[in-house]
Specification:
Length: 492
């Protein structure tokens, strides 16, 4: 990858990584075709719901301690802010840290602003954010409306930066710009790299950058055994922490989809190596992850000692869990790489994987120096081909037909709204809302116990299913056999 920080806008995933949001077939064919970037975008003629790059960008920048966010958008774009604030507060408590509240103001673009432009309003709102929150940096996120009007956000942020004497950082994350909403993560990282990250003053040889969401502190105890310190980025980190990420010994992430851009950029720009291993979900992948960190930080002997001790420590509980879950069928529904990691973990605790749906698929990763970062390839190498594999950008009408046919005993989902779909079908589900919850050796045990607890709620789900009426026609639910009926031809 070659990152261009002189360009204010990130190169979107659609073109950079050949990302797609539709596929059905088997996993091996998907990975084989991805190697040549042979898959083309396939739209849907009907979409039930979606997400947006702006929301993904704000999932990161809302939670930077000491920063404020100005959203140059109609107020509706920020419908999710109270949920974000709730999460930030809950995770602050879980990590034993000071409560973090989101400091955000919307410019509330109105119809007349889309005719005459909204730059004066933007200037006033940045000033208001400065006066109200005394931030050490202000992020300005764009939206479809400001993008279509063509408001020159870059020049206003430059002017206000000079006036206020703090970084005022534009994040170009208009929802319409990319058909893959995770581009919003990259847009936020791109702006942080352009305007906040400083060249290293010194190297912190025991510091590990962990690119994650607002999750619990589950990495530190494992890294501590390796005499390493965790640097959780970006949510709940301070502006100063972000500036120093170039000083870390290595970068890791809880999901390649989330961390692919920034980790590769840090390696390219500042020589901070991205750890070349799958994320630590499942015993074998955690072993690989520890060994890869050890290789970069000169701790190979210690790594072997830690791995042996951890295996011995969890062995009795793991065996018990595997016996309890043996033969139970599982379906995984989550974002791209995270779904692969959860599938690996599910098999590790004894479940039989009957299928996966990922919300999109990147045909390549940003860091091309290692095949170990291609998580689907890792999954196939570890567990064999997955015959029921689909890519679907969160369309419940599609997934319901897959689930009705495969009838798993339990579902693992990343987004909580989709656990409801599972319950309505009488299938217990667990929600990986805290994406850090299942990492490492302790994570395997915790995950197995959560699945077991979920399976025991089956009567409750069956009761719900008995009283549910879906909003789909009889034709769709009973007569049309193809869940992918609304997918269009590939765009060449
Ligand atoms: S930025 Fe665009 S896609 Fe995103 S919420 Fe606003 S209008 Fe919708």
């Amino acid at each position: 990858m070659s990152i261009n920080l002189s360009n204010s806008q990130v190169n979107i995933r659609d073109s950079r990584l050949g990302s797609i949001t539709s596929y059905h077939g088997d996993a091996q064919t998907l990975i084989d075709q991805s190697k040549d970037r042979a898959l083309h975008f396939r739209n849907r003629s009907y979409s039930q719901c979606s997400d947006c790059s702006q929301g993904c960008a704000e999932t990161l920048v809302y939670h930077i301690r000491g920063a404020a966010v100005v959203t140059h958008a109609p107020i509706g774009c920020n419908a999710g802010v109270s949920g974000q604030n709730y999460t930030a507060r809950a995770v602050s408590v879980a990590r034993g840290q000071e409560i973090h509240n989101v400091h955000m103001i919307s410019t509330n673009i109105q119809e007349k602003d889309t005719v005459y432009g909204g730059l004066e309003k933007l200037r006033e709102t940045i000033q208001e954010a400065y006066d109200r929150f005394s931030p050490s940096a202000i992020f300005v996120t764009s939206s479809c409306a400001s993008g279509i009007v063509g408001d020159d956000i870059e020049s206003v942020t430059c002017e206000m930066e000079n006036e206020l004497g703090i970084p005022v950082i534009p994040v170009f994350c208009e929802g319409f710009k990319s058909r893959v909403w995770t581009t919003g993560f990259d847009a936020a990282y791109h702006s942080i790299l352009r305007k906040l990250v400083k060249p290293p003053q010194k190297k912190q040889k025991d510091l590990v950058n962990i690119f994650n969401f607002q999750g619990g502190d589950t990495f530190s105890s494992l890294l501590k055994k390796m005499n390493l310190r965790s640097n959780y980025l970006v949510p709940l980190a301070t502006v100063e922490q972000l500036a120093e990420m170039s000083e870390a010994a290595v970068s890791v992430h809880m999901c390649e989809t989330l961390g692919t851009y920034i980790s590769a950029a840090l390696e390219e720009q500042y020589g901070v190596p991205e750890v070349k291993a799958p994320a630590p979900f499942g015993v074998e992948w955690t072993d690989k992850w520890i060994r890869a960190i050890a290789k970069e930080t000169g701790r190979e002997k210690l790594a072997e000692k830690v791995i042996a001790q951890e295996h011995e420590r969890i062995a009795p509980q793991l065996q018990e869990i595997r016996e309890k879950l043996k033969g139970k069928k599982v379906y995984v529904f989550a974002g791209d790489s995270f779904a692969h990691s959860l599938a690996n973990l599910a098999i590790d605790v004894g479940l039989e994987l009957v299928g996966i749906t990922t919300l999109h698929h990147d045909q390549k990763v940003d860091n091309t120096n290692s095949e170990e970062l291609i998580t689907l390839d890792n999954l196939i190498k570890s567990r064999g081909n997955i015959t029921e594999f689909s890519v679907c950008n969160k369309q419940p009408y599609e997934v319901i037909k897959i689930l009705k046919r495969l009838r798993p005993d339990v579902m693992i989902v990343r987004h909580q709204g989709l656990t409801v779909l599972s319950a309505k079908l009488g299938i217990p589900a667990i929600n990986e809302g805290d994406a850090n919850a299942s990492v490492g050796y302790d994570g395997v045990i915790k995950f197995g116990n959560r699945v077991y607890d979920a399976l025991r709620t089956i009567k409750f789900e069956k009761n719900i299913a008995a009283h549910v009426k879906f909003p789909y026609s009889k034709w769709w639910l009973e007569e049309e056999p193809d869940p992918f009926y609304f997918e269009k031809e590939e765009e060449k």
